[in-house]
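Alkaline phosphatase structure dump, as promised
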Amino acid sequence: MVIVMIVTVSVSGVVFPSPSPEEKDAGYWERLMRQEVKEALNIRQNHGVAKNIILFIGDGMGVTVNTAGRILKGQKAGRSGEEGYLAWERFPNSALLKTYLLDRQVADSAGSATAYLCGVKANYETLGVTGRVRTDDCYSSRQGANRVDSILKWAQDAGKDTGLVTTTQVTHATPAGLYAKTAQRKWMCDTLAKKEGGGKCKDIARQLVEDSPGKDMKVVLGGGRQMMGAPLEPSYTSCRRGDGRNLVEEWRQEKERQGEMTTYVTNTGELLNIDVNTTDNLIGLFAENTLPYHLDREEGSQGTPSLLQMTQAALAILSKGPRGFFLMVEAGHVDKGLHQNKAVKALEEVVQLDEAVSMALTTLNLEDTLILVTADHSHSLTLNGYPPRGNDIFGVSNLKDVTDELPHSTLMFSMGQGYNYTWNGTKVVRRNLTGVDTTHKEFQFPAAIPTTTWGPAHGGEDVSVHATGPMSHLFHRVHEQAYVAHVMAYSACLGPYLHDCPRPVTTPPPSPPSSPPTHHNNNHNINHTFSNQSVLEEQHSNQHNVTDHSAGGRGDTLNFTEDESHQTDDNIL
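structure tokens r here:
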């Protein structure tokens, strides 16, 4: 059990200790850095052709969010956290991506999805169309010359099985970037399309079920039952269909007319009990709208599956295809929590993405699988104020140079709902955090400018992309975000590179993700062969209880696996 302390500059101890007391000695750093130099010198490029591609998206997971998520991961294991790594941070190749849109300095999830999935820059709130289509321009979005194909279509044209996993609605901006062509991301159902002027344009849910490449996916897992006309809670009215159609049933019937066995599931128990060997297509809708946050979800059989469980199920189905697969997995609630300034919830979603990526690394053969981890855009989160090493990432500090002499949180936002300032007749006064439980999952961290729930809270700085597998070395500097789609296509010889993906005559052996420094050993077998029969079973049975940042503060526990326990001498990739 971890004892929680509020750290100030006058306190000599820290909440979470470093796992390496010897780090105070120069020899420690020389050994560590020599090891890292050696690893860099031994990197070998993989020039093979990718059979499989997995694209992991942390929605809104900018560099600061990534850093805070790394610290949280370590602190959940009882360590200071700064010295650790998220799974993708050990990949051999990484770069930065420019996320601006053609008409915005700061991107939304739709325009950015068009870039990294279709390979072209586009405008705010548009999906699958060129920059010739402006927001809400239904007419222009229907013109063939203005429509572009995505990596999903290119993969299907090559005979690969395809799928998506998301914690948002399956019709939300990021997943819709795979299949939709629309001038407005909000047109998820027919009633919203008609209300907002897109009545002559097909809504996103219909495009998923009626049009290629959406209708040809093998796996679709996420939320959005109401948009699809299959609500289990009729009173919910986020985006109710006005045409009375049940698109899930129509999708299932069409698949069966093609002679394919289709399974539809709505909770965790049903998902974990699918017959992988007899299921050709899997659709799972686990909420009327978006899925609950991980810290809010019901974990029983009647509850909502985790991102890890959905990803395991998707890989079980898609791995059966002889020509490989393309899968996109989105941790969508990173963005949702940051919009609400609820950093505890948002950063837990980063940790959940880490678990899903780690599972994929232990499951798939990286000699023929390209794995990418990136974000669509950043957020306005800051990590600041010189807090002591190991200070609770959700904690506060008292610094003498803060002129109002009030404690401040390490995490803050430039914009959002956490705005809490008053005027005392003489000066502006911010909220006093003394005695406030800033580790509570519902706590809204301070923001400088007030916004609505989904206001302009995104960040416009570059986001990172991390890559391992065939042709992952093509990520090597600052790139346009549209470059991601082209690297994926080139790695697997798809779409525009179907007949234009030359390789060196001699292909050297590839380099897997590197092991962390000596105090963090790599326990993953990256060449493990996927088992269709056992994939839906809990793959990590050895569990540890460690501190969780959930309601009620530090007293609750969260089960972690043997590989995730992060004791002094082990760490994940």
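The two ends are 26 Å apart (CA to CA).
lmk if u need the other ones
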